[in-house]
């Protein structure tokens, strides 16, 4: 099985998860940043990773996802929100909508540190749409601890199980 793991990463979070996902792939699979990713038609399985931007996969990942119609894919992403939050579920639903026409066999989200420049920019938005509440501060502090070893092990497991199902194991 010829596999590709490609990712977009702003702070290095998604790159770390991509490396863990790649470890779950058969030997010889390709791991590359999304801007260097080849045509997905040459692969039996494509895993694409993103960081969440405004409730959606970032623009670079979205552009690559548009090329995945008809492919067997898995998705993984990092975000500042808790991975079991409604925001995370909404992000995943929007991601799956972008991949309509593909067969999505795996999905994984985990927290990841948010770029401090992005936090500062959001705090200056008109109407202060993202005020620094105690809850938000605690969430960002927790996000800064991720992805951790447990997150990476969980990502490997999700993708290893998906590939095992594809192989009928």
Description of the molecule:
By secondary structure, the protein is an alpha/beta fold. It is built from six helices and six strands, in the order E-H-E-E-E-H-E-H-E-H-H-H. Strands 1, 2, 3, 4, 5 and 6 form a six-stranded mixed β-sheet that branches. The longest helix is centred in the last third of the chain and has 18 residues, at 149-166. It starts with a strand and ends with a helix.
Sheet having the most strands: 6 strands, mixed
- Which architecture per CATH? 3-Layer(aba) Sandwich
Average pLDDT number:
92
H and E order? EHEEEHEHEHHH
Residue fraction in strands:
15-25%
Helix content: 25-40%
Q: How is the CATH topology named?
A: Rossmann fold
Low-confidence stretches: none
User: In DSSP terms, counting alpha (H) and pi (I) runs of 4 or more, how many helices?
Assistant: 6
- Based on Cα principal axes, name the global outline: globular
Distance between the termini: 14 Å
Q: What is the CATH superfamily classification?
A: Flavodoxin domain
Q: Which CATH C-level class is it?
A: Alpha Beta
The overall number of domains is 1
